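Annex B, item 7. Sequence and structure tokens for protein A, then protein B.
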Amino acid sequence: MSKAGALNLASGLGGKIDKSDVLSAVEKYEKYHVCYGGDEEERKANYTDMVNKYYDLVTSFYEFGWGESFHFAPRFKEESLRESIKRHEHFLALQLGLKPGQKVLDVGCGIGGPLREIARFSSTTITGLNNNEYQISRGKELNRITGVDRTCDFVKGDFMKMPFPDNVFDAVYAIEATCHAPDAYGCYSEIYRVLKPGQCFAAYEWCMTDSFDPLNQEHQKIKAEIEIGDGLPDIRLTGQCIDALKKAGFEVMWSKDLAAGSPLPWYLPLDKSHFSLSSFRLTAVGRFFTKNMVKALEYVGLAPKGSQRVQDFLEKAAEGLVEGGRKEIFTPLFFFVARKPHSGSQ
């Protein structure tokens, strides 16, 4: 692990939060969640604050370990994590039927890894909607570096109240992002509003599967670990997403949990029993080194106090994700394509 990599991680920890306030931000974030006595309604009522704090705290960790695209993907044997992620993004672009010159919206775009890849793959103009200032500033910097800053941009805004006029985008997509919405129907309704009639919305959603038993304590523990480790107010069932799409006015063209039938499990990069040189930082050994590096950086004052706590709840999330995947009660790969009718109205 290079000295430059360590210093880049340290410089980004905490995002836009003042370095002296990181520890108190971590404590406030933790209190939203069940593990610390919080409840679902409070998380939903304060989702903007909760999700912003989450991404200020974790973005540098994500980029350090995962790269620019913060999402999972079904994976073939002999395929690297990076290759599977790119293919997953290309698949979405193909399912939407993107054409050169179209105006596309990425809802909850992170630092824009998928946005840049899809824009180059499809020759489209993509706007990334994000409510986190730190991620937007980092995304703009990466757009300049990769040379897509003339065709791709970012807009700061809440996907429950989008700052766009009606019927303006040729296509809309979301990659593991609208799971942060406190209400799926409200979010999908806004997407419906800004999408042109006859055009499509596609997404990968984080969901509990039909195998999830809300009365099973182990299942509840896994769900709670994923929620605290990933900034989620609640995790919906796959059927609830479909119902919300239809209620918002969409015609659901098709949907499928892409985790089913994947040659390699989507959670493999986080599985401690798995070792890979190509994604070393995500392995048990890599995470051990990162943990001790963050501990040392915090001790000498290069990383803000509270950085270790952030890594602790990310580790808890990784454990919940792996167990949720193994038990097939959770999927980050529920995919759907939905169409806004030409003459329909909500």
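Protein B:
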Amino acid sequence: MSDIGDWLKSIPLLTKYWFAGSIAVPLISRLGFIDPMNLILWPAKFFGNFQIWRPLTATLYFPVTPGSGLLYPVNLYFLYQYSSRLETGTFDGKPADYLFMLLFNWLCIVITGLLMDMQLLMIPLIMSVLYVWAQLNRDTVVSFWFGTRFKASYLPWVILGFNWVIQGSMVNELIGNLVGHLYFFLMFKYPMDLGGRAFLSTPEFLKRLLPARRGGVSGFGAPPPRRAAPQEPAAGGGGGGLFGRNHNWGQGNRLGDD
């Protein structure tokens, strides 16, 4: 039990609450304490009956049945791995910034879900976080099944393709990737790499709620590295002139493992 306790203590704050909620809500429903129909995103009930909890419960709920196979535990693994890595990496010491990213992605997914009549939002939000991690660590080398190795920037699309082949559907993954790309572009790519204006910033009330830890860098995390501009060749002479971690990702699970 001490090992489990130490492991739980090692999970960063926001990831811990998200991970715990994603276990507790499906478990409560599985035990019959709550009707799953009260947890899913149902536009008619949300707007007509003012059941405002549905966007949150639809993000935490997943139907755990024999037919769901490994999809639920594999996505829990993705949540734990990539949310932890973002929270302790790019957003280390900046919990308000990380919470803002989660809220921005979540709101975009909820709006999309209401427009497209999507009932479950767990996978899109997890995939949006995985996409942001993959872009911020795009040169990290990951390993997939059968020894396939590629850069992390391709990981969200490989998972999308795998689900499309196995399940015949890729809507959840596609929406998650697009929302993750929207956040990454507005927060990092456009203002930091392309020199555009910053459209997103963490509200002050979130910074007061979750103040930055001492030693943390203010503002958002490191942007993707800029490409060095090519130098003009010197007269009469020649032209002027991330590291990767290996991951055993994908072993033992249908979609992947780290």
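Comment on protein B: The beta strands are 141-143, 149-151, 247-248.
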